[in-house]
């Protein structure tokens, strides 16, 4: 690890000026450089223990939110420091954790100077790192200071696994510095062990992202005699796709209705115009309109989409036919409702990967595939029933991860 520290520092010194210049040239700010070098302005927490929680970017930060809340609830006498690795991750963390975490900052560069400066200032009593963040020098430095470091919600993609397996000799030494590795699945456990982790240190915990609860739902949209399709969190360009498909399917399946929920309320007027242009009549949720009067209801109110999934037969999850990266399909799947999404899913790729292994979720490549799959759910009753059952099965297999981590923290 001494050699790694030297090499990583040399590479950093040589490469960073070019990286910084390139990012500035393409308009991407070099955010958090001071903090990433270890110069963290931490408040004076006195002698209180610090639990450090790290999620590199948006998906990981969102996944850790409920755990962060539970940590503060179960360990009120301890301080919680949350770190991220990206600017977008930092923005989400500041938005979601402002009233949970005691301090939010960037994770240090994995070079000796930055890591040691960071640990000198933060001095955590335990570090929990989400998913696939294996920083060799950071783990080594923590181990030297007797700071337990655990990977939680651990996962390794097939492509990453193939790469890491080629340098197993290196990762075998790296994993010696981790106190524990808690994985999302048996398959992830196998992968970690095959690339060098000590078997006794690896346990399956499930996926934190599946620790969601059904929202109380008492909804009357006149939906009782119809099959409801929800297009949730749609972005510009996706409403047209959904409206076109719905109009075509409506000619064959007269009992279907559509609840259209734009991600951003400011887009509602544009969605109204689009709906009119397709020759479709619509109502508005804000006016308490019902499906008995309209084939389409536009959800123009805030904070209601989550519970609306309870009344649908299946849902299309938006933000997936552009570069947004998708939105959380579990808001629908928790009600045992199958989901469909476009190809852009990087914000929730592990969730979609888990759902897509069954019929609980489907990733389609284009609008044509979307229509075909929607029609399959409408026309094939046995397939639809299995898809709903798969949602329940997946949740039962994955839940319990949050309490798993809390139990481990309690025993430290």
Structure description:
The protein is an alpha/beta fold. It folds into two domains: 30-39 and 46-212 and 399-410, 3-Deoxy-D-manno-octulosonic-acid transferase, N-terminal domain (Rossmann fold, 3-Layer(aba) Sandwich), CATH 3.40.50.11720; 227-397, Rossmann fold, CATH 3.40.50. Helix content is 44%, strand content 16%. It has 18 helices and 14 strands. A seven-stranded parallel beta sheet has the order 3-2-1-4-5-6-7, sandwiched between helices. It has a seven-stranded parallel beta sheet with strand order 10-11-9-8-12-13-14. Helix 6 (112-122) packs across helix 7 (136-144) and helix 16 packs across helix 17 (381-398). The mean pLDDT is 92.
In short:
It contains 18 helices and 14 strands.
If strands are numbered along the chain, what order do they take across the biggest sheet? 3-2-1-4-5-6-7
Can you summarize the main beta sheet?
Answer: 7 strands, parallel
Number of domains: 2
CATH architectural label of the largest domain: 3-Layer(aba) Sandwich
Query: Considering the protein shown, what is the CATH homologous superfamily of the largest domain?
Result: 3-Deoxy-D-manno-octulosonic-acid transferase, N-terminal domain
Structural class: alpha/beta
Helix content: 40-55%
- Measured between the Cα atoms of the first and last residue, the distance is 26 Å
The fold-level CATH name of the largest domain is Rossmann fold
Number of strands: 14
Q: How many DSSP helices? A: 18
* C-alpha geometry: elongated
User: How much is the average pLDDT?
Assistant: 92
CATH class of the largest domain: Alpha Beta
Low-confidence stretches: none
Radius of gyration: 24 Å
- Proportion of β residues? 15-25%
